[in-house]
Amino acid sequence: MSKRKRKKTDPKAxxxxxxxxxxxxxxxxxxxxxxxxxxxxxxxxxxxxxxxSGFLPTVENRRPAPDAVPAGMNWIPGGEFSMGANxxxxxxxxxxxxxxxxxxxxxxYVDGFYMDGTDVTNAQFAEFVKATGYVTVAERTPRAxxxxxxxxxxxxxxxxxxxxxxxxxxxxxxxxxxxYIKGANWRHPEGPQSDIKGKANYPVVQVAFEDATAYAKxxxxxxxxxxxxxxxxxxxxxxxxxVWGDEFRPHGKWMAxxxxxxxxxxxxxxxxxxxxxxxxxxxxxxxxxxxMGGNVWQWTSDWYRPDYYQILAAAGGVAHNPQGPDSxxxxxxxxxxxxxxxxxxxxxxDQYCSRYIVGTRGKGEVSTGTNHxxxxxxxxxxx
Length: 383
Fold this sequence. Notes:
This protein is α+β, with helices and mostly antiparallel strands. The protein is about 15% helix and about 15% strand.
């Protein structure tokens, strides 16, 4: 269980650190390298629709699910694949920044597993809370010993909420559109005035890593590793820039809940939704998984390091069931314990955050939830 140990003295100032998940700040210089798998040692790399080289074919395990597929879950066969992200199709600056800590592309093998078909919903999380009496991190009053020097009046339960300005602003200071709100939590994702009535089928948000792991344990499941998440998201396809394929809007069709309009002040809702959407409103990927791009970010179990892929690549060969680095390190906030987020959210846009590109990585401090961060679980197969 993690404690929210912060050095900031103003809860509103928390937002600058707590929402680091929105932007990638890694400065590593990575090359798009090709790593040969045992199955394709003599095969050439694949170049796909502007994605560039570096990807080899995905080799799925041929074995069927070893037992009955649990309700609400899908069988993910596992296998060997090329993990990471190359330069985005349009080579724009925002997209380039999104891929810096997702390189070099490297070969990974994961065993088969079952994964939730959708993000965990408000209804499912409410069932967990009712059964266990669990209180989320955002609902707990921070303790003075965990926040030395913080004025008592600032030790209030709450969470970080997207609060867009009513006019365009420069995109160099994200506290302009994020704020810490007293009383924000999974029941009140945008603050005390909000609620989740009529939103049983929406993803639960405002969940810290501790909350997500507690739910997963209760459900007899666990959170996915970053490698498992990406294998599942790719759906057996190699090197595609998006979960659904090569084009962001094939034949003009919206494929995920993202941000349209001028970020951060205007979301036009051209994709059908302003802000968060219910689960499963857009097409599933080839493995039958919904919302693996857009809508809400998803927690994984891996600690975040921007150089982790370089470490794996330097080891050579194929990484088998990688569990992530032993500890976290974010150069922009070296003292903060962060886990990897995947998938992007309804705030992702090619103006600022294009992490609906499959293979790209987000990050978040473990005790922090936001109103665009949720999770899904997986279950190991019985052998």
